[in-house]
User: Fold this.
Amino acid sequence: MLKNMEEHQHDKVLVQIKDLHYARRSVKILKGASIEIQRGKITTIMGPSGCGKTTLLKLIGGQLRPDKGKVIVQGQDVHSLNNEDLYLLRKCMGMMFQSGALFTHLSVYENVAFPLREHTDLSEPLIRTLVLMKLEAVGLRGARNLSPTELSGGMARRVALARAIALDPTIMMYDEPFTGQDPITVGVIMKLIRLLNDSLGMTSIIVSHDVKEVCNISDEIYMISDGHVVGQGDPSDLMHSSSGWVKQFMNALPDGPVPFHYPATPYSEDLLERSG
Amino acid sequence: MLNWLQYLGRSGEHIFERLGKATLFLLQMMCGLATLFKHPRLLVRELYSVGVLSTAIIVISGLTVGMVLGLQMYNTLVDFGTEDSLGPVVALSLTRELGPVLTALLFSGRAGSALTAEIGLMKATDQLSVMEMMAVDPVKRVIIPRFVAGVISMPLLAAMFSAVGILGSYIVGVGLLGVDDGAFWSQMQHKVSLDRDIINGIIKSFAFGIVVSWIAVFQGYDAVPTTEGVGRATTHTVVHSAFAVLGLDFVLTAMMFGDN
Assistant:
């Protein structure tokens, strides 16, 4: 497995998603999405709420199994790996969840130290140095003794980011990193994503629906709607796209290919039926 | 009629599906037990939170149950002039039945519900998911230490319950009602057998420990990750544990003491 990963460490495409289908109960979420994530770049998956962006991240991480299609990460078909190999592959991945998902029974310091303690035999002084380095990178070295309940939403995400990069992953995944944050925090997170991606040589995958922020930071954007990729390119390509889906999303139009109304019988029929 | 049969079939299917899932989950835990040798500190921490923090409720309940039992038994035995048998009667009731069963019911209410709520909330706040993404198996890291701590704690707490209960009946019987001190202890020593009564009581509480801890961790791990889902899972833990303990108690009692 390790040898196989090493063979693919210089591939230009780090993550390849081929004709991915995924349904939850009877609802089809992905209907044949194909995406390529380039090594060293920041790629964003955009789309309206509920279109399967977070599901896609979980499929890349092997937490969900697709109904059809493949996810290939560093030359490995994620869903054909056994548990041991999947866990080995996940050591190369970092993920920042929308909620931060910090361990509430551990302090900020212990949260960041957690993956280091689990996967390495480093001495305590070395772990301390690494934890302080990661916290310094996100500007929260001074908050190391706080409990997660004492952090603001933005701080919690920065701690989650420090924890996610503790093992210096090759791929970093961000689930809605800007949602619900004030403009200063959004600016800080944007800066951190770019800085960490470039300085640590990572490949970043962002899932978001914040058009302005994403266009500022991304090298490439994939737009998903109704389970398909409906647009792809760099931010300026998408801004000038002729696709109805892309136009509606990029310009925040309330109606268009993504309808304003949830599917229903005609309004007049509904009213008449009620009055009758 | 057809609807009713449909409902019955669907409910039966659901129950068997859950039982199958819970059994696979138990097997998964059994396969990962070796992880505790790698991280013994995890077990120690859970023994404290599951076991040590349950001692207060166990000691207080054991003492009051023993005192009430002593009083009630004395009132009955004194009519037949056999109040000297108070010691063995209370000791047998506690070690064979009341100790293991009441401890299991109290444990499910105090520690079992807490385990379910804690694991369920970890799931609802993505803490288990993030662990998986960090290549750490949440079953090994979170579930197994809690399960094993529950299994180890239960017999110890049951023994504590019985011991404190006997002390409670001693205070009431000997201290307040005038039963002979020597008769209380000597009859108890004569009538209570180590292997038949005490060991069987420990085996019972060990079995209850497995069942209650299994239900608690499974309900938490399988909870719907919402506020309502975690609340429902916590209720299920207490209710299912009570049914399982009472049902299993009958089976075990029939196996252990059913021959006379």
